């Protein structure tokens, strides 16, 4: 028995397959991703090496801009390996995941692989004991954070190390997990011993920012933030997809998780009638700003946990940071919507989000 949210994706997948049988030509891994992996991992280590002995100014610039961009890209490529889209076969993709994990400073690839596959299968299954959506937040975290910007910042930055989620989040400590721990901690230890503190802190802080309080960190907010009634997943069509291996095409990805990042835009173009009318974000920057400082945004705003926020009042396109304005070719014919993270619902007061019945 699948959830309504999973069925929402299953039904669209079936329609697209029936209407556009050529979609099957988009399936499968793309070996060009292996070259991208070598470039991004090598580039991240190269920047770290360059920072050895660097002054505070260059270190801050690299850590706030270059590092999170590369660390986030690495996380996206781990996601590709999780879906066996880097090479043929699970073993090869698990190995690529371990390699990608080397500059991140802590093991993540093996645990993410198992948890993320459950997330796809059980989207919005959020019961605290039996729920298997491993990406869903907990009500305990929501209660602790409340509407406090400071607590939101703390939770968004380091909550993953404290809030353990549901029983389904637990991953067996098998050989792959051991290999992940040994290689990840071994790599960062080697960097510390040979290159020093600045490169080590660059790698660690970049990872913390890329998946935390940074523009790129907003991605995990956007994907399943309930905005429009009946739509459990949202895409992002802004220009940061260019440095994020098209990970913003998230509705398309849940519909067809076997389509690699190099072909997901073709999927959207092929089935434009299925994707053109859906809500989509245009700015991760505005979203994360809204989350931290607008009391209407709560940790519990996740599909299956609460009612949609709504999209009654949206900022004009001009209010979106120029660096995140989507190319005109990516903008729907609809009136501009989702160009910021601000959603207003006049009837809802700040406080605990309204749970789904």
What does this protein structure show overall?
The structure is a single chain. Helix 8 (175-195) packs across helix 9. The protein has a two-stranded parallel sheet with strand order 1-2. The protein contains 14 helices and two strands. It has a domain at 29-214. It has helices spanning 4-19, 32-50, 56-82, 90-101, 109-121, 139-145, 149-158, 175-195, 197-210, 219-222, 250-255, 264-270, 272-275, 284-293; strands at 235-236, 280-281. The protein has 357 residues and is mostly helical. It is globular, with a radius of gyration of 20 Å.
Average pLDDT figure: 89
Widest β-sheet, arrangement of strands:
1-2
Instruction: Compute the CA-based radius of gyration.
Output: 20 Å
Major beta-sheet overview: 2 strands, parallel
Helix content: 40-55%
Going by helix content, strand content and strand pairing, the class is mainly alpha
Count of runs of 4 or more consecutive helical residues: 14
Uncertain runs are 313-322, 328-351
Quick one: overall form? globular
Please indicate the percent range of residues in DSSP E strands (runs of 2 or more).
under 5%
Order of helices and strands: HHHHHHHHHHEHHHEH
Q: Based on DSSP secondary structure assignment, what is the total number of beta strands? A: 2
Q: N-to-C terminal Cα separation, in Å?
A: 19 Å
